[in-house]
Amino acid sequence: MLKIKLFQRGKKHQRTYRIVVAEARSKRDGKFVADLGFYNPQTKELHFNKKELAKWQEQGAQLTAGVRRLLS
Hints:
Layout: E1 2-9, E2 16-23, E3 34-40, E4 45-48, H1 50-58, E5 62-63, H2 65-71
Parallel strand pairs: 1-5
Antiparallel strand pairs: 1-2, 2-3, 3-4
């Protein structure tokens, strides 16, 4: 099953996150299928491709709790 999850990037205390589509059992920073956008918690900046997100959800990809919280 595919999940839309957060992929950590950056140094300690300077994390940024990529919003990616990955296999549910893959590691947090493992391989992913598609890159949909990013989130920077320091500046509260969130950018993602809404059309791609909708396409992946139609194909059965599920949102993780963290991504669901960000998008609401």
